[in-house]
């Protein structure tokens, strides 16, 4: 086991009655609040009114900024920063999914900084302080509600950068599984793939002594395989929705990666896809992850055997390691497909190979030429992964 | 799943090099520190010198108080409170196992309180503030390093009270698995039983929708069953020691109980045993838990079947639920015995039945007449559990 620190202080308030606490919790945001949200679905669902009423009851003053899009844009972040400065906002309340939370985190980092917040995303500067962020989560997927990460896209350059910083962890996150009842099936499935990918990026590790966290990762992956079909068959199945939502938070609050060497190459390979083709992140991961597995499984066969046996109950026959490993890869691909996700480039809407070289170069070069850890990938490796995903 | 809050902000610093950070971390204790410890084993092991040097290097002023015994005493807590007041101590650094941490928490609560700290333990008062507590852990067992709990014994009345309060969570905990190499085998085994009991108290629940946390509990229990024999066979097996230590923290930082209805009757039944006979808590639990299972397994047979199949790989034959459940109970008892723990009252050193009635009465009455939740136990039930443990 590697030496590690674990500090995940986000207060999670979970359940049917959790929204009653939004106003009181928001006192922790320090004063006037920016309520940040996306397309307006929170207005249609009534959540917007619930948030507004709870803030008013608690005497929390606020301004608002909607319009966050999937793969959140730097231009809106800049707009949010200007608004917060003008209105002397002290903290941000993100109401929505991962894109909204990521946008809120970038605004929170940018307000007290005299330069361009992109400096942080481009790893050129480190912030001294950021505004506190609270979350009301509506989409279990990105895990941003308790993570130290944000991902923002700069439109002009099609650069999609992820940035990790301990100051970005939300102060609190309110999770009501009922809010996920109205998610379109495709979005539910994309969330499931994203959650599983967060675990898989940690699961495939070169650190040998990870018995307990292996089993926790497997616990989460099995839970998703069991619960996702239930939530899709019956969108108002509270139990299934709750399992997915709680798992989504624990998949990415760092718990499952402690003591391990994490990988994250599939995320980087997907980021390049969604920066150019604007595909849903979870859908891109469902295409990329099985292809990544196919490229590299032979080098650490025993780990892919364990994955197949423990997560997908593939029967193990001694001496048939490769067959077992391949069956595990086949099953995760079949699982993604069964919940309505694309599993090929064509299904994803990537029309041809014209961007493969560019994406492969960017995926490797933005990581300083060293992508991943379980197997360090070269530019040709990444191009091959895009091909294997066809 | 039940509605819940989860807030576990203790910073865990884990690994071979973690002790280098003790001094820097202790700046969070607010000023002058009381270094609190037990019998002096930390002096023999050299840890005392490491702590002192790290505090001095970081410029942290401190006084010290040793002498904590297993089942920590109220008298020493009083002594610590008086010392902290006299020396104007701002925070406590507990160096040791659960007893030392529990004693430190009680001192931390007592210093700013004008009455007797026992008021808190007896649930008569609630503290407004407590001093911050930091931890350097040497025994994986109680989970006190990241929990909101303390257990203290009042010698005169043989009362052993547990008290939970969010203010009691340590600010940081330094965990170096190498420090557990020198634990006597019996103490290692007692720690394993305590850790497993913390999970079992949460695992046996009447909340039906707990798929993910069930699997996390099972992950932890399996890890202990696998790793404990390794640590006992080879005391300097870093990997095994690390798995046990990390599992010990996660067994009791509240993670595994979220969304569940917890039980805790076996802990209460054991507390009465150790208050009178001064047995090791983990040893008492190894005797009590299988007996509790035997009393109640028929009422929620499916949960005991799941336990047997998923934790101990008991083969399941349709229609043979009771046999499967009983085999699970037999295996956990056999496991405790295999790692050198007592599994009967006689082996525990309880000579006769003379205290059964008194202990059963106290176990039930200190819980307001309602002990446990998975099955609410009466005084005769508890007496029967002591008998089943013979």
Q: Any descriptors?
A:
globular, Rossmann fold, 9 strands, Dehydroquinate synthase-like, alpha domain, homodimer, 390 residues, alpha/beta, two-stranded antiparallel ribbon, 16 helices
Blueprint (SSEs and pairs):
2 copies of one chain form a homodimer.
Chain A: E1 4-6, E2 11-14, H1 22-26, E3 33-36, H2 41-45, H3 47-57, E4 62-65, H4 74-87, E5 91-96, H5 98-110, H6 118-121, E6 133-137, E7 149-154, E8 159-164, E9 172-175, H7 185-203, H8 211-233, H9 238-250, H10 265-277, H11 281-296, H12 301-312, H13 321-338, H14 345-348, H15 356-365, H16 379-388
Parallel strand pairs in A: 2-9, 3-4, 3-5, 5-6, 6-9
Antiparallel strand pairs in A: 7-8
Helix pairs in contact in A: 4-5, 7-8, 7-9, 7-11, 8-9, 8-12, 10-11, 10-15, 11-13, 11-16, 12-13, 15-16
Give a concise summary.
2 copies of one chain form a homodimer. By secondary structure, chain A is of the alpha/beta class. Chain A has helices at 22-26, 41-45, 47-57, 74-87, 98-110, 118-121, 185-203, 211-233, 238-250, 265-277, 281-296, 301-312, 321-338, 345-348, 356-365, 379-388; strands at 4-6, 11-14, 33-36, 62-65, 91-96, 133-137, 149-154, 159-164, 172-175.
- Outline the biggest β-sheet of chain A: 6 strands, parallel
SSE string of chain A, helix = H, strand = E? EEHEHHEHEHHEEEEHHHHHHHHHH
Which structural class do you get from the secondary structure elements of chain A?
alpha/beta
- Report the C-alpha radius of gyration of chain A, rounded: 20 Å
Question: In oligomeric terms, what are we looking at?
Answer: homodimer
Give the CATH class of the largest domain in chain A.
Mainly Alpha
Write down the overall geometry of chain A: globular
Q: What is the CATH topology of the largest domain in chain A?
A: Dehydroquinate synthase-like, alpha domain
Global mean pLDDT of chain A: 96
CATH structural architecture of the largest domain in chain A: Up-down Bundle
CATH superfamily of the largest domain in chain A: Dehydroquinate synthase-like - alpha domain
């Amino acid at each position: 086991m590697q030496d590690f620190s674990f500090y995940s202080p986000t207060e999670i308030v979970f359940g049917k009655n959790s929204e009653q606490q939004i106003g009181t919790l928001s006192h922790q945001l320090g004063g006037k609040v920016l309520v940040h949200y996306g397309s307006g679905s929170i207005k249609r669902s009534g959540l917007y009114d619930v948030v507004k009423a709870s803030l008013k009851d608690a005497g929390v003053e606020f301004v608002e900024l909607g319009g966050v899009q999937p793969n959140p844009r730097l231009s809106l972040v800049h707009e949010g920063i200007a608004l917060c400065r003008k209105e002397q906002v002290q903290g941000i309340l993100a109401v929505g999914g991962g894109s909204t939370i990521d946008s809120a985190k970038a605004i929170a980092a940018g307000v007290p900084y005299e330069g361009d917040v992109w400096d942080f995303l481009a790893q050129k500067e480190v912030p001294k302080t950021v505004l506190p962020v609270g979350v009301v989560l509506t989409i279990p997927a990105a895990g941003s509600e308790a993570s130290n990460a944000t991902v923002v896209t700069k439109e002009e350059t099609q650069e999609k950068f992820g940035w990790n910083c301990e100051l970005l962890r939300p102060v609190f996150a309110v999770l009501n599984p009922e809010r996920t009842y109205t998610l379109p099936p495709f979005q539910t499935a994309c969330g499931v793939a994203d959650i599983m990918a967060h675990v898989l990026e940690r699961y495939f590790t070169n650190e040998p002594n990870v018995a307990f966290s292996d089993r926790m990762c497997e616990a989460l992956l099995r839970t998703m395989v069991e619960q996702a079909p239930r939530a899709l068959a019956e969108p108002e199945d509270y139990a299934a929705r709750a399992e997915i939502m709680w798992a989504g938070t624990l998949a990415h609050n760092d718990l499952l990666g402690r003591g391990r060497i994490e990988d994250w190459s599939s995320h980087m390979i997907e980021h390049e896809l969604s920066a150019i083709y604007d595909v849903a992140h979870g859908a891109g991961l469902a295409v990329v992850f099985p292809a990544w597995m196919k490229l590299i499984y032979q080098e650490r066969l025993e780990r892919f055997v364990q994955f197949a046996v423990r997560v997908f109950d593939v029967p193990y026959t001694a001496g048939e390691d490769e067959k077992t490993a391949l069956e595990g890869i086949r099953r995760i691909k079949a699982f993604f497909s069964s919940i309505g996700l694309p599993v090929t480039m064509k299904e994803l809407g990537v029309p041809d190979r014209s961007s493969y070289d560019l994406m492969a170069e960017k995926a490797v070069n933005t990581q300083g030429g060293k992508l991943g850890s379980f197997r360090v990938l070269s530019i040709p490796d990444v191009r091959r992964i895009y091909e294997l995903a066809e």
